[in-house]
TrEMBL record:
InterPro entries per UniProt: Alpha/beta_knot_MTases, RNA_MeTrfase_TrmJ/LasT, SpoU_MeTrfase, tRNA_m1G_MTases_N
Lineage start: Bacteria, Bacillati, Cyanobacteriota, Cyanophyceae, Oscillatoriophycideae
Location, primary (coarse class): cytoplasm
GO molecular function, one term: tRNA (cytidine(32)/uridine(32)-2'-O)-methyltransferase activity
Family that this chain belongs to: Belongs to the class IV-like SAM-binding methyltransferase superfamily. RNA methyltransferase TrmH family.
Name of the protein in question: tRNA (cytidine/uridine-2'-O-)-methyltransferase TrmJ
Free-text function comment from the UniProt entry: Catalyzes the formation of 2'O-methylated cytidine (Cm32) or 2'O-methylated uridine (Um32) at position 32 in tRNA.
EC number: 2.1.1.200
One GO cellular component term: cytosol
UniProt keyword list: Cytoplasm, Methyltransferase, S-adenosyl-L-methionine, Transferase, tRNA processing
Domain tRNA/rRNA methyltransferase SpoU type: 9-157
Quaternary state and interactors: Homodimer.
GO biological process, one term: tRNA nucleoside ribose methylation
Localization per Swiss-Prot or TrEMBL: Cytoplasm
């Protein structure tokens, strides 16, 4: 069993509202060998009586969980990030099944995260932009919406099963992906330069940059490739100062 691989997977709950759900998530994580639980701006007491009641023997997962204010804080140090969604996105995006995508999080030596949204709406597009791949749990089309804890249970089970058969899983053991912080720094740099040279305009920059994010996320960039791209941006930024201004 790849216990170390499971230990490197973070379960990230974005703004969970129900302590019963949070406790149930902790229990199923313990069942499936997962230990890292991070809550982004929770609207409930993760250590209260209701959460503890549902966690049963997973109380230690609750007690060791972390609370952060932003998604970037929750994802620091991660090279691979998958988000769950039950709806169509505004941008063309390939939705995968948990069984097909989640083994990707178990690559040797990499830190990864699996994100879940709020109980009432899931993850919005602004939150989904941080992920590289997206999963949707197949269900009865007449009523496909799963409870938060149920969704975590399905995905945790698939991760556990993938860890039992590493040879059958897509792990890319020798691939070193760029960290979340490295990619976010690149995206900020890209936005600054593209605004400066007039390729982006402030009122459309957000939508355009989401397309760039999805493009680069598909590429699974390495740290060396990010450094190469940032070198190009620095050169473009330097050359831009010699372009005559249209206002002159």
């Amino acid at each position: 069993m790849k216990e170390t691989a499971l230990a490197r997977v973070r379960i990230v709950l974005v703004e969970p509202a129900g302590p019963l759900n949070v406790g149930s998530v902790a229990r199923v994580m313990k069942n499936m060998g997962l230990h890292q639980l991070i809550l982004v701006k929770p609207h409930c007491d993760r250590l209260g009586d209701e959460a503890r009641l549902m966690a049963v023997h997973g109380v230690d997962v609750l007690e060791q969980s972390q609370v952060v204010e932003t998604i970037p804080e929750a994802l620091q140090g991660c090279q691979r990030i998958i988000a769950t969604t039950g709806r169509s996105l505004s941008l063309p995006t390939h939705l995968e099944t948990p069984r097909g995508a989640l083994p990707w999080l178990l690559a040797e030596g990499l830190n990864s995260a699996l994100m879940f949204g709020t109980e009432d709406r899931g993850l919005n597009n602004e939150e989904l932009k941080y992920a590289q791949r997206f999963v949707s749990i197949p269900a009865n089309p007449d009523y496909p919406s799963l409870n938060l804890a149920q969704a975590v249970a399905v995905c945790s089970y698939e991760l556990y099963q993938a860890a039992q058969d590493p040879l059958e899983s897509e792990t890319d053991s020798y691939f070193e992906g760029a960290s979340f912080e490295l990619l976010e720094g690149y995206y900020q740099h890209l936005e600054e330069v593209l605004l400066k040279i007039g390729y982006l305009y402030p009122h459309t920059a957000k939508a355009r940059l989401e397309k760039f994010r999805r493009l680069y996320n598909k590429a699974n960039l390495t740290p060396e490739e990010v450094a190469l791209l940032r070198g190009i941006l620095r050169q473009v930024n330097w050359a831009a100062q010699f372009i005559p201004s249209k206002n002159k």
